[in-house]
Each structure stands twice: as structure tokens, then as C-alpha cells.
Design goal:
The structure is a homodimer of 309-residue chains.
Chain A lengths: L1 E5 L3 E8 L7 E3 L2 E7 L1 H11 L4 E8 H11 L5 E8 L4 E8 L5 E5 L7 H14 L5 E5 L10 H11 L4 E4 L2 H7 L6 E2 L3 H8 L4 H10 L4 E5 L5 E5 L2 E6 L11 H14 L4 H17 L8 H8 L3 E5 L4
Parallel strand pairs in A: 1-5, 1-9, 2-7, 5-6, 9-10, 10-11, 11-12
Antiparallel strand pairs in A: 2-4, 7-8, 12-13, 13-14, 14-15
Helix pairs in contact in A: 1-8, 4-5, 6-7, 8-9, 9-10
């Protein structure tokens, strides 16, 4: 199975309002709710692709209970979340139907106790022998040490399990020391990590900091990958119009899917870009449009670039 | 016991953010969550005053389950909510810590089926013989007929139970035909009902439309009451600074409390204004500050006004 780790799971709520005006009262015209957090999103895409996938991390309180009930409805997904005393956070995306803009409210997440963090590390180590790959995704909840991902990456390396890291800020800066096999930053995260807004320079710098391969997601410009086997740029066939929510998580799922299927890098990138684009095109935020995915797989462009590394 | 009806119960969530900017992403610095809907708020205040109180209305889905779990923790409050197939709404109040302003997002509430509405009417009729007063509070969820309150008021009248109605819009316009013993509109609701922004004129008009007594809450100006026994203005001792959330619900609780204790109107109004003011002064939104309440009861001014009615 593929293991995805989401230490700060979330119940993702989407509210549609005709027009958001600060300090006013709004009737929400439409409500959607689903389990979230990056690793959960990645797992859902992997399960839809037919992979066996296990999710771990923390869930607690009433929102944690709702989250786990919803996860039980996802075929092919195994819930190995650990209970915590605190309450799983909600994220609320308020979509303004007039402007199309989204205002995001993210609760902080439960405070994880030292005992809960120890229990997680044990449970994680026990899951690794069954894992063909592990993805460590998203923010750290309060109480989890900022170097958490570095430790989890080392445990996976010791168990011989390939790793992918997708996080931001201090968790990324400290996590990269654990030498992930694949680092999947977006343009902002890459610039924050390296201080460079030039993707070629920044991916090289990120790789020097400890990542085996760096796959940077550049929004509509697709992916830029710097790997031990070479450097590629993978782009969708055309500018896509739609909702980019979850596109990065779908790219992670594509990379993991290609990794466990032992595909060469260009084919992994094709899968990642097609899934990501099919997510932008889906009418439901964070889902991918399967016919679009099948069609896009034939039309993604992967160009080998001269490596200056 | 006092019966409060909340057909559109809610799970009230408060998010504090440093500053709310549309189309931006925000970390919520503080989260609070509690059972809500006007009748639930009224019941919580009544229970805190030592009254036996029963809440009825609808609750459903995961939010309904959380709501009922939280209600079970309120001493003196009996939960007689009916289950519905749909999901109880959330309301989200986003408090901007810089401006102090609140942006409100209200989910629509579950769609109540005709069978569920019939079941409610039966359960309500069965509760009335034990009730010393009944308050019908708040908005109607989708599926409940707009004339619902008129019917519920007539059932209570037939059972000899005194009634209070606190709602707005069409539910108020149609509900008043059921001749509530007390109507408790705020200034906006009163103006919308009568077309007059002049409280004396508007309360007279509202009374002519069918209310036994009209007690208008005029924010910092206190209460204006037009009753069969006369007309009074009740005001707090000074301009209050604080959070007015729930002040109107506390006023309703004060009126009901005074009614079941058979107090004369001036004393009911004193209780209502003191509770309302003590709610504004409380550091926790919607709670009342008990020492402030005890102190304010001595200092509320109730002036009899010449009635032109």
C-alpha cells in the first residue's frame, strides 16, 4: 500500500455566498463538506486510481469523528488515523459567486501532546513495512516539533521506503534535512525555502539542501523536475480554466502512483500533470475529471532540459 | 417548565482572525463553538436563572448530533428536539480583531419534510400541557410553511399556555396572525413589519396586527413596551460597551422568567433589560455576567409613558 501522513487533518467546508462583504451577514447558498488535509486529498486520488492506500496522522473531537465517518465511505482507503484529545480543525472556504474569489479560514488544529506524538511515531514505524511509498503532507499541528518531518523521513529511509515531502514554511525548511526522495514544493514554497524566485536556480538549490529529486509545481506552467536521472519540464496542452483547489495534491498522487508503478520519470510527470489538470477541470473542487485525465495523459508535453546542475 | 421552540437550531461557531481580507487565506487565532438558534440561547439563560426549561425544534446530521451532545451538558435544560433527515446548519461569526467587526455566514438549515413537520406539531402539542409559557424563536428552516408560527400559537392558546414570538421577515408577518401574548421584535423587525421607523407608532401598529403586548428592543435605548396594562420605556443605567450578541435572546428570557413568576410588567421589563445589559457586558458572547445582572436589576429605569393607543 501507499501510506500518506496528514498530521493536521481537517474537515474542509465550502460555503458559497452571492457576494462576501466584511462586517455583513450572509446567507450561505450552498454548503459542501469533506475530509481534508493534503495527505487525505492525495490518498483519495490514489484510491480513485485503484491503489491501496492507508492514511495516518491525527483525528480528534467531533470534527475528527465526522472526518473518520466520511473516510469510511471512500473505497480502497484504509483509515489508520490516531485519536487525539484535541479537536481536528475545520477549514472554511468562502466562495464569492460574484467575483469567483475564495476567502479561506483555517482553524489551527488540535494541540498534540508529547505522548500522542510518541504514539504516532510508533504507529508510523509499524505501518512502514507494508508501505511501498510514503508521502508526508501539509502543515504541523501545534505541539508537533518543527523538525517532525526530518525524523519521519529518516525512519522511512531506515525501513527502505521511498518518501515524498510536501509541506511549507519552517516544516519544509527543517524537514528537508531528512533527505526526502522527492520534494514537491509549489513556486511560493520553493522561493520561501531558497530565496530564489527563478525556478531553475531554486530547484537546484532545494536539491542541494537534501532532496533526491525536486518536482516544483508552477501552476498553469506545469511541473519542473530536477531528478538524479535528469531535468524535465512537463506542461499541460493548453491554459486551463477551472478551480485549482487540490491540483497540487493530485500532482503528488500522480508522482506517487508513477513511483510505485516503477515508471520512468517522464511518465511519472505525465501522470502528475494530467491528474493535476483534470482536477482543475473538474466541476467539484479537489476531485479529478476521469475522462479528462485519460485524454490529457496523451497530450501532456514532457521536455528534457539541459541540466546545469 | 418553560418551553422554547427553535425550528432552525444551529451550531454557532466563532472564529477570531487578526484581520479579515476578502480573497485571502487566514489563520484563525481562536475558535469557539456552541449550540445556537434563538430559542436555544433563550433556554440557556432561563436554565442559568434556575428555571426548568425544555427545548424543542429540529436537529439532524452530524452538526445536530454535536449540538445535542453540547445541550446535554447544560444543567436544568431538557432536550426534546426532534430528529430530521437533513443536517442542522452552522453559523460562522468571523470576528476581525483589528476592526472589532463581525462577518456572519449562516448556512440555510435542513429541508424539513412534510412528515417531519407533522411529527413536530404532534410532539409540540404533547409538550404544551406541562408548559407554563412557550417561546417561538428565530427563522424557519426550508420546508416549514411560512405560516408555521401562527399555527403553533393557536395550538398554545387552545392549551391555555401564554406565548411569546420572536422572529423576523415573512415568518413574523404571517406569525402575528396567531395572536402571540407577547411579540418581541427589534427595531429593524418592527420597522419591516409595520413600515414605520418611529417605535411608538410601530409598536401600536404591531399590537393592532394581533399581538397582546409588544416589547420592542431598541438596542442601547432599552425596551419599549406596549401592553394591555400600559406603556413603559425601560432603559439601562448607562451606555454599555461590549458585545451585543445574544442581548435580544437574554431580553426574551427575562420577559419569560418574569411572566412565569407572575411579575407585574415593570418588573418583567427590569429583568429583561438587566439580563440584556449583563449579556452585552459579558466577556463571553451570548453569556450574561451574573454579578452585573444582580447589580443592574437595581439600576434599570422603568418609566410609564402616556399611552396614545
Amino acid at each position: 500500500m501507499i501510506l500518506t501522513v496528514t498530521l493536521n487533518t481537517a474537515l474542509d467546508i465550502t460555503h458559497r455566498v452571492p457576494s462576501l462583504r466584511p462586517h455583513a451577514s450572509h446567507r450561505v447558498s450552498e454548503v459542501a463538506e469533506r475530509p481534508g488535509g493534503k495527505g487525505i486529498n492525495v490518498a483519495r486520488v490514489l484510491a480513485a486510481l485503484g491503489h491501496e492506500v492507508t492514511v495516518t496522522g491525527f483525528a480528534g473531537g467531533t470534527t475528527g469523528r465526522i472526518l473518520r465517518e466520511r473516510l469510511a465511505d471512500v473505497p480502497g482507503l484504509v483509515d489508520a488515523l490516531l485519536p487525539v484529545e484535541g479537536t481536528t480543525r475545520r477549514t472554511i472556504a468562502v466562495v464569492d459567486e460574484t467575483s469567483g474569489g475564495t476567502t479561506q479560514l483555517n482553524e489551527p488544529g488540535p494541540t498534540v501532546s508529547p505522548a500522542e506524538w510518541s504514539a504516532f511515531q510508533e504507529a508510523y514505524a509499524a505501518l512502514l513495512p507494508s508501505a511501498s511509498a510514503v508521502a508526508l503532507c501539509g502543515s504541523l499541528p501545534p505541539g508537533v516539533p518543527v523538525g517532525a518531518y526530518a525524523g519521519l523521513l529518516r525512519t522511512a529511509r531506515a525501513a527502505g521506503v521511498p518518501t515524498l515531502l510536501d509541506t511549507s514554511g519552517a516544516a519544509l525548511r527543517r524537514g528537508i534535512a531528512g533527505r526526502p526522495d522527492v520534494l514537491k514544493p509549489n513556486a511560493d514554497e520553493l522561493a520561501e525555502l531558497t530565496g530564489s524566485h527563478e525556478p531553475s536556480t531554486a530547484t537546484r538549490d532545494a536539491r542541494r539542501r537534501g532532496a533526491g529529486a525536486v518536482v516544483a509545481s508552477l501552476g498553469p506552467d506545469g511541473l519542473l523536475a530536477l531528478t538524479p536521472e535528469g531535468r524535465w519540464r512537463a506542461t499541460p496542452p493548453a491554459r486551463l480554466h477551472g478551480n485549482p483547489t487540490g491540483a497540487g495534491d493530485s500532482a503528488v498522487a500522480g508522482l506517487l502512483s508513477g513511483l510505485v508503478d516503477s515508471l520512468p520519470w517522464p511518465d511519472r510527470l505525465t501522470r502528475a500533470v494530467a491528474l493535476s489538470a483534470a482536477t482543475v477541470l473538474s466541476p467539484v473542487a479537489g476531485e479529478f475529471d476521469r475522462p479528462a485525465y485519460e485524454e490529457l495523459r496523451e497530450r501532456v508535453s514532457v521536455q528534457r532540459e539541459a541540466s546545469a546542475a
